[in-house]
Amino acid sequence: MIHAKQESESLELAVLLALSGGIMDAYSYLVRDHVFANAQTGNMLLFGIHLAAGRWIECLHYGVPVVCFAAGIALCHAIKIAARERHLHWRQVALIAEILILIVVAAIPEGHSLWANGLTSFACGIQVQAFRKFHGRALATTMCIGNLRSGTQSIVSWFHEKDEKTLNTGLLSYFVIVMFVLGAVLGNWFRPLLGTRMILLAPALQLVAFLILFVDREGRDVEKRLRDRSARAAGTQK
Question: Would you say the pTM of this structure is higher than 0.70?
Answer without folding.
Answer: yes
